[in-house]
Amino acid sequence: MPQPFDPGYVAEPFLTLCSDYPGADVYPSQEFRVEWGPIFHRGRLDGSARVLVLGQDPAQHETIVRRILVGEAGRRVQGLLARLGITTSYVFVNTYLYSVYGSVKAATRRHPALVDYRNRWLQALLVGQQVEAVIALGQAADGAWAAWKATPQGQATKPAYAAVTHPTQPESSAGGDRTRLALATARMLRNWNAALQALHPGLTHPDAPVPLALYGDAWAEGDRLPIPAIDYPAGLPAWMRDNDGWAARKGADETAKRRNITLTVSKGVVA
Ligand code: URA
């Protein structure tokens, strides 16, 4: 059976953006895992996107797949997009090209070359295109949007905009405590419901029109959706698409962990 795939960066301006990108002089290696290279996007680059999602930074699964938001956070966002009737007409870019290591200094966050390069992507995806709504995942992405809106072109483009809680913020904030996780998840889903209410009426060209349906106060069946095969590079094995946990940073100390991502084929794939 033919397998759909993402052909990659085959047309301008993406060809140029992907051949000439900021490195460690802009993204310091003390703050970013530049050794694993930049990871640029996921979704449609052919002008068909109606929703632009701004994420934060790639993690280990994204590093191997070379597309962003391909893990649990991505599956949660696919569910959010489906509630807007968006099944394929989307594009994702991150605030940062490289995985954050520790925290990002304010001076780095505001580095003109970092901001300008990201704005070139936003320009390519928004100016003269048909994006109707932008969703920012977390505070860094909200800041990225503010930096774009501070440019003349950013002021001239006026899609609907919602800044939402990052999809894995509940896990990051709960510190392994189940009660705190449940509360943070409920809080996040209320926040996402507010975004749905704000954005749903303005999305006039959904892929699959759906009536507005809000989340409950915990994840329910169907809230997390698979990432379509067409978002992945050609030939990616199916088990890399199905679940998280197949890529882990392992090592005896921080440097070793930084140097290593261990891949493990999911159970049941090899007899
Ligand atoms: N979270 C993000 O915001 N971006 C990614 O690429 C992965 C997880």
Structure description:
By secondary structure, this protein is an alpha/beta fold. The protein is built from eleven helices and seven strands. The strands form two sheets. It has a five-stranded mixed β-sheet with strand order 1-3-2-4-5, sandwiched between helices. The structure holds uracil (URA). Residues 55-59, 62, 68-69, 73, 94, 137 line the site of uracil.
CATH C-level:
Alpha Beta
CATH A-level architecture:
3-Layer(aba) Sandwich
Strand proportion, as a percent range, falls in 5-15%
Supply the helix-strand structural class: alpha/beta
Shape: globular
The bound ligands are:
uracil
Strand order of the largest sheet: 1-3-2-4-5
- Give the ordered list of helices and strands: HEEHHEHHEHHEHHHEHE
Major beta sheet summary: 5 strands, mixed
Primary descriptors:
single chain, 271 residues, alpha/beta, Uracil-DNA Glycosylase, subunit E, 5-stranded mixed β-sheet, two-stranded antiparallel ribbon, 11 helices, 36% helix, 10% strand, globular, binds uracil
